[in-house]
Write a structure and sequence with these properties.
With 587 residues, the chain is of the alpha+beta class. It has 14 helices and 17 strands. Helices cover 50% and strands 18% of the residues.
């Protein structure tokens, strides 16, 4: 029995145990290599998606910043001083705008022949003509804003710029010249630096800005020979971004100059609202060494275990499990942080609405006191001081009154969401009658004629829908033409919603300003021409959007305007109250 036991123990020690240990080591090594490959692939996918999100965020920010410049050039072209002022006044206004909006490197005004009348500098860039003649001719011919992309012939990174050019017209519609501006690409670098720093910290990423055909517009670290000409890249990330402008993503590729492998996130600019945008591609990338950094320690651990065969396999399993658990915890924490950020954004929006209501409401009392005392000064000391004092007091009274009106309008705008009522069945004919009763004095004074078709019953907030009709009718009366206002309200069914229209025969709206009129406090006329603060249509749009609809305008200058808004109605049966007549006239 002892011999058998000895032989069995010897066989186990000399043959079976080494074979088992070798097999376990082989299995453990294979499992370790597979786990390492899986972790690397997972990290590449995670970091690639983050780089793609970062590139998309930068592309959207670039679109937004350039859209603001697109809006600026329209405001400049409609500035009365720029169109009608003297040379000194125009120069002063251009210098003021260049200081107010730091993105610009050059602003200029020309006459109808393209001759520069005033500019912040003699030339937009060294060696370049003051005005691009082809762009000037295009603006004069089309009457629209011209976007000038980055020229490939720019001498250096500092001289690359995009241009905006808008036409100026006189009171009779005659072409008077253009307003032009240049936005250096160098001034957009802060967008890339800030967006990249948010996720990865400083100097841990690289970025490029390319055209659709691969020409480099800007990059974080420009090549030493970039001054010799514009480089054109043919790399996988550019090819994928160029093939589908609507999608962002990532790809693994080789760095176009340094030759090492990188993970590149890509996205394309797509314009912003009515701004067509420039056809650009944004690339954010990191080296594989930076991406693999979290598992590099695991690689050395696996190698050490491979060398030290005598280490317990159980320790190796525990170590791998610990590493895997830690990486999984980090992924779970990242997802939880993202969900927390989304929830925090919702709370922030709600807090912002509450803040606007409280701020405007609490400002009423001190502003009312300022207005009362300035009016008291005006009554008590009018004629007792010099003419300047009377004028200054009048300015103070007018300013306080206008500020009070602005705060009241802001309070009304914030109450659209905070002070709303639950939706219920609402006959729109009764809503329109209520709005017309509120405007009865204005309708009589202007001798307005208001007619309407039979209007349906929808689900909504009757008080807010009446405010929509009241604001639209008030605007139609205010901006009427030479004759008495004539207004018609109609409704028609379209699929699962009702389309309402308010048509007038007033002065109309230039189509290029059709989107601007719905922005809060945006006005197309001066207070001397037409009173108001420019918030009525913004309130209407917000009310309609609260009801799940949309609002727009169809108009031409001098040909009246038709304001449309939709109210969703999932039921497929049109509801028109039989008690309402076809038309209702009021004079």
């Amino acid at each position: 029995m002892q011999t058998v036991a000895f032989n069995t123990s010897s066989r186990w020690t000399e043959r079976i145990l080494p074979l088992l240990l070798g097999l376990c080591f082989f299995i453990a090594t294979a499992l370790g290599l597979y786990a390492l490959s899986f972790l690397r692939a997972m990290l590449v996918a995670e970091r690639g998606n983050e780089l793609a999100m970062n590139a998309a965020a930068v592309a959207d920010t670039v679109d937004r910043v350039l859209f603001e410049r697109y809006g600026d050039i329209q405001l400049f072209a409609n500035d009365g001083v720029i169109r009608e002022g003297t040379s000194e006044e125009r120069m002063a206004r251009l210098l003021h705008y260049s200081q107010l909006y730091w993105y610009y490197s050059w602003l200029g005004i020309t006459d109808a022949d393209g001759t520069v009348l005033a500019a912040t500098d003699s030339r937009p860039a060294p060696g370049a003509p003051p005005i691009n003649r082809a762009a000037f001719d295009a603006v004069q011919r089309s009457g629209t804003i011209h976007l000038e992309p980055v020229p490939r012939s720019a001498e250096s990174q500092q001289h690359k710029a995009v241009g905006f050019m808008a036409p100026m017209y006189g009171p009779r519609g005659e072409f008077r010249g253009v307003v032009a501006s240049l936005v250096p690409i160098e001034n957009l670098r802060s967008i890339f630096e800030q967006e990249g720093r948010l996720r990865y910290g400083q100097d841990t990423y690289d970025w490029l800005l390319l055209t659709r055909d691969g020409a480099i517009i800007s990059e974080k670290q420009a090549a030493a020979d970039s001054a010799n000409g514009t480089a054109v890249l043919e790399i996988p990330s550019h090819t994928r971004a160029a093939s589908d402008r609507q999608q962002s993503g990532f790809v693994e590729e080789i760095h176009h100059r340094r030759g090492y492998s990188v993970v590149t996130g890509y996205a394309s600019t797509r314009g912003y609202r009515d701004f067509p945008g420039f056809d650009w591609i944004v690339l954010f990338r990191q080296t594989h060494d930076q991406v693999y950094a979290p598992v590099d320690r695991l690689l050395w651990t696996v190698g050490g275990i491979g060398v030290l065969v005598i280490l317990p396999l159980t320790g190796f399993g525990i170590l791998v499990s610990w590493k895997l658990g830690r990486e999984r915890s980090e992924l779970i924490k990242t997802r939880q942080d993202l969900e927390t950020s989304v929830a925090e954004l919702g709370r922030s929006n709600a807090d912002l609405q509450q803040f606007a209501y409280v701020a405007s409401h609490d400002l009423q009392e001190p502003l009312r006191m300022v207005s009362s005392y300035t009016q008291l000064l005006a009554r008590r000391y009018r004629g007792k001081l010099d003419a300047d004092a009377d004028e200054f007091i009048a300015y103070a009274v007018d300013g306080a009154t206008r500020m009070q009106k602005l705060i009241q309008d802001l309070l009304a705008y914030s109450r659209v969401s905070t002070g709303s009522q639950p939706f219920e069945s609402t006959p729109m004919g009764a809503v329109l009658s209520y709005a017309m009763d509120n405007l009865l004095s204005a309708i009589k004074d202007s001798q307005a004629v208001v007619t309407h078709d039979r209007l349906p019953t929808v689900r909504g907030d009757a008080k807010q829908l009446a405010q929509v009709f009241q604001n639209l009718l008030s605007n139609a009366i205010k901006f009427h033409g030479e004759g008495p206002p004539r207004i018609h309200i109609s409704a028609r069914r379209k699929e699962d919603e009702w389309l309402f229209s308010v048509r007038d025969e007033g002065i109309g709206i230039d189509p290029q300003f059709a989107g601007r009129i719905f922005v809060i406090f945006q006005r197309l006329h001066t207070r001397a021409e037409y009173p108001g603060t420019g918030i009525g249509l913004a309130i209407c749009k917000k009310i309609v959007e609260r009801h799940g609809g949309r609002m727009w305008v169809e108009s031409e200058s001098g040909k009246g305007a038709t304001f449309w808004f939709s109210i969703p109605d999932p039921s497929q049966k049109p509801s028109l109250p039989p008690s309402e007549g076809d038309t209702t006239g009021a004079e």
